[in-house]
């Protein structure tokens, strides 16, 4: 059993690439952002604790996130490992993760800050299947999402001012993790400022596919 981490700034393309490599890895995607948004929508205690941080573009406290992951990793589909998307984001989260499940690869999708605002402010997804699209860079097919249940959804935190706070949180709290994983010899840096297909090929190569 061994897990993969997709790492990178907000809007780097972690979710986009996760969808594309799911089949090859055979591992379920575990996105802490998606889990938190579901908890906010359901009005759970975790959702109530997380909402004010998410709305402000700040990281949710480590204890909340680590508890979520401890529970998720117990589920039957996680028995052979998972593909983390957006977790860990701090050194304490990575330390906790190392005692929960082994990690074989950390795939860092690198995108310069100046590209991030455009990527995030043009993002939308299909409410039916969750597929992620972009107004300019990755539009949905003309007839709507191939899943058939077409309703466009935009995230509450996808606006210019929140993106700036999310980028600051990334540089201050998350990017120090890169060295933490580099020292472990499992860190793979991928140029994320290219066509989506090229990035997918490089990620699969790094994973040995
Ligand atoms: P989360 O949901 O994880 O958001 P994020 O990290 O900010 O990442 P995104 O989902 O915004 O981006 P992505 O990298 O998946 O990019 P995407 O593929 O969609 O977290 C939200 C909040 O939850 C956080 O701010 C925090 O409050 C909280 N949180 C979550 N996890 C936490 C944790 N572990 N600890 C503490 N707090 C946590 O792509 C973006 C857009 O670009 C799309 O429109 C896509 O179509 C387009 N695109 C993708 N690739 C390309 C390309 N190569 N070229 C052009 N366009 C592209």
Give short descriptive properties of this protein.
45% helix, 209 residues, 9 helices, five-stranded parallel β-sheet, Rossmann fold, three-stranded antiparallel β-sheet, alpha/beta, globular
Low-confidence stretches: none
Molecules bound to protein:
BIS(adenosine)-5'-pentaphosphate
Morphology: globular
Number of helices: 9
CATH homologous superfamily heading of the domain at 3-112 and 173-206: P-loop containing nucleotide triphosphate hydrolases
CATH class of the domain at 3-112 and 173-206: Alpha Beta
Topology-level CATH name of the domain at 3-112 and 173-206: Rossmann fold
CATH architecture of the domain at 3-112 and 173-206: 3-Layer(aba) Sandwich
Please give the radius of gyration in angstroms: 16 Å
- Give the biggest beta sheet: 5 strands, parallel
CA(first)-CA(last) distance:
17 Å
**Percent helix range:** 40-55%
Structure write-up:
The chain is α/β, with parallel strands linked by helices and 209 residues long. The chain has a domain of 144 residues: P-loop containing nucleotide triphosphate hydrolases (Rossmann fold, 3-Layer(aba) Sandwich), CATH 3.40.50.300. It is built from 9 helices and 8 strands. The strands form 2 sheets. The protein has a 5-stranded parallel beta sheet with strand order 2-3-1-4-8. Strands 6-5-7 form a 3-stranded antiparallel beta sheet. Helix 2 crosses helix 3, helix 4 runs parallel beside helix 5 and helix 6 packs across helix 7. The chain is globular. The structure holds BIS(adenosine)-5'-pentaphosphate (AP5). BIS(adenosine)-5'-pentaphosphate binds next to helix 1, helix 2, helix 3, helix 6 and strand 6.
